[in-house]
Amino acid sequence: MSDITVNAEQLTQSVQQVLQAAGSSVTEAHQVAANLVMANLSGHDSHGVGMLPRYVDAVLEGGLQPNTGIKFIMDLGTMLTLDAQRGYGQVTGVQAMELGMARAKQHGSCIMTLANSHHLGRIGHFAEMAVAQGLISIHFVNVLSRPVVAPWGGGDGRFGTNPCCIGIPLPGEAPFLLDFATSRVAQGKMRVAHNKGQRVPEGYLIDEQGRPTTDPGVVVVPQPGGMLGALMTFGEHKGYGMAMACELLGGALSGGGTWHRQADNARAVLNSMLTILIDPAKLGTADAFAAESKAFIDWLRQSPPGAGFDHVQIAGEPERAARVARERDGIVVDASTWQEIVDAGRKVGHVIA
């Protein structure tokens, strides 16, 4: 089998059909499929349709509960504590954001925790929801799955890729949208690289013996003895500190829990998230915010391009450019990933045409 190129609509339909076969309603299956495909369109294949086989396995194992919504644990108006009950994160995350955004528009701000969600996907999706309504959005997320990231100074995986995301609406400009894993690179990007038979740059990985390696397979396929290697945090001790903050704020504060046990082979990926939403229009600084943000963005863009660059970009621009290109040219899915998707469909009795 060779790589395939498929348009977004066809890919969404194929993924939706597998999700329905795995037990999701038509509405849920479409929402999850569209979210995964949007990640591919945005250039983040790590969070795209390649996750489908893991979702199917998680449903079959019982770690992911289709057709499950959020449950209120506590509601103080400007503070919400929610439980996702292991439902699809692409659904429960949106439900939580809709509640939080309504409160932020009403009160000026909202602090919200969402615990026990299955994989939330690309966290930038939730920030995009917020900035579209003129809201600032800050997210700290932990990952309860096999620990694949090493602490700074450590020699094995002790926590997950623990993403952080900040969305800021910019008056008269496209929004600032910063979305990053606290690991040097997302775990899903290692899966994609492994499936493509690629090596990765030095400094990203250590193997199961704690030695530097450029083979992404060490965090994708169990090595001899069933061990896995680990990703490194970005920025050495700084990324490690951010990863800890995400674990403590996303996991401990939400009640969803932190990772402090031996790894297992369960396929479910559980996320918990702290979200802070702010309505800048209610701070009384709207005019200054508009003027100063424009002046700063203009100042950045006046910088002459450095070696190897065409121009200075603002966080969110690469994703928007990728969407234009992939909507036009189609989404390339590598042969190994596509075979995994086809096999996932067969597990639930669906044959992808």
Task: Summarize it.
With 353 residues, this protein is an alpha+beta fold. The chain is built from ten helices and twelve strands. Helix 1 packs across helix 2 and helix 3 (52-61) packs parallel to helix 10 (335-347).
List the helices and strands and how they pair.
Layout: E1 4-6, H1 8-21, H2 26-41, H3 52-61, E2 71-75, E3 79-83, H4 89-107, E4 109-118, H5 124-132, E5 136-144, E6 163-168, E7 176-181, H6 187-195, E8 205-206, E9 212-213, E10 230-231, H7 237-252, E11 270-278, H8 286-301, H9 317-329, E12 331-333, H10 335-347
Helix pairs in contact: 1-2, 3-10
Could you characterize what this model shows?
The chain has 353 residues and is an alpha+beta fold. It is built from ten helices and twelve strands. Strand 3, helix 4 and strand 4 form a beta-alpha-beta unit. It starts with a strand and ends in a 6-residue tail after the last helix.
Main beta sheet strand tally, sense and closure: 7 strands, mixed
Q: Per CATH, which architecture of the largest domain?
A: 2-Layer Sandwich
How many E strands? 12
- CATH fold description of the largest domain: Ribosomal Protein S8, Chain: A, domain 1
The domain count comes to 3
Helix content: 25-40%
Keywords summarizing the entry:
353 residues; alpha+beta; Hypothetical Oxidoreductase Yiak, Chain: A, domain 1; Ribosomal Protein S8, Chain: A, domain 1; Wheat Germ Agglutinin (Isolectin 2), domain 1; 3 domains; 3-stranded antiparallel beta sheet; 10 helices
